[in-house]
Design a protein that fits this description.
By secondary structure, this protein is an alpha/beta fold. The chain contains ten helices and eight strands. The chain has a six-stranded parallel sheet with strand order 3-2-1-6-7-8. α6 runs parallel beside α10 and α8 runs parallel beside α9. The longest helix is centred in the N-terminal third of the chain and has 17 residues. It is globular. 37% of the residues are buried. Bound molecules: 2'-O-acetyl adenosine-5-diphosphoribose. The site of 2'-O-acetyl adenosine-5-diphosphoribose has 25 residues, from α1.
């Protein structure tokens, strides 16, 4: 399974590319989600991420997240890869989630790269690394940055090995995540897409389920249980 922002939309977490509500309709990625933007104005980037963290803290997993968590023990070799940074899959009970783009609730040192605690003595008001005093940054993947190697490798392996690849709530535009379905297909997997809208993946999909994840995933779970 590969999930994207669409699965968290019904939890009130804005997607990136939906025309009216998506984050990129209001902000430009290069202004807020690049290492260059952070280097130029870390306070601005932290304010934006703090706002998004609060949204994520207030959000609750929805019926779609819960259905995937319940599906996991019913299917052999179930792997969940998510592009989402909100941790809602884990809060719904999914285990061993591969976080392809990191997690917005963690900090990591902007210099050493390791996940670190915050220094209580920050004079700038921005979070600083408890180990080295350099600025912390959200532990997410920004444009132009590599996918964490462990996630990249595990997801590629799962895509190569799977019989069925279910793509849920993603616009299938951002690589390398969007390439996972193509990789699975080349390895002989069937592709199922669940999305209210067509995407570039639709043409490759064996089955398209048009609708909302919070509606269709519980129905899929019921069908598997029967
Ligand atoms: P997008 O915002 O690009 O796409 C969200 C998709 O979810 C769209 O195709 C919608 O049609 C669909 N959708 C909306 N509501 C839905 C619902 N209730 N149920 C199912 N689907 C629904 O989000 P992603 O494809 O996840 O990367 O974006 C990929 C990456 O681009 C993100 O991880 C982020 C962003 O830039 C980074 O930050 C590195």
């Amino acid at each position: 399974m590969l999930t994207g922002a669409g699965i968290s939309a019904e939890s009130g977490v804005p997607t990136f590319r939906d025309a009216q509500t998506g984050l990129w309709a209001r902000y430009r990625p290069e202004d807020l989600a690049t290492p260059e933007a952070f280097a130029a104005d870390p306070r601005r980037i932290w304010e934006w991420y703090q706002w998004r963290r609060e949204l994520v803290h207030e959000a609750q997993p929805n019926a779609g997240h819960r259905a995937l968590a319940e599906l996991q023990p019913l299917l052999p070799q179930f792997t969940l890869v998510t592009q989402n940074v909100d941790g809602l899959h884990q809060r719904a009970g999914s285990i061993d989630v591969i976080e392809y783009h990191g997690n917005i609730l963690r900090d990591r040192c902007s210099v050493e790269g390791i996940v670190a605690g915050r220094s209580p003595l920050s004079v700038t008001g921005l979070p600083e690394c408890v180990r080295c005093g350099e600025l912390l940054r959200p532990d997410v993947v920004w444009f132009g940055e590599p996918i964490p190697p462990h996630a990249l490798h595990q997801a590629a392996q799962a895509a190569a090995d799977c019989d069925v690849f279910l793509s849920i709530g993603t616009a299938s535009l951002v690589y390398p995540a969007a390439g996972l379905a193509e990789h699975a297909r080349r390895s002989g997997a069937r592709i199922i897409e669940l999305n209210p809208q067509p995407t570039p993946l639709s043409a490759l999909a064996d089955i398209t389920l048009r609708g909302q994840a919070g509606d269709l995933l519980p129905r899929l779970l019921q069908a598997v249980r029967r």
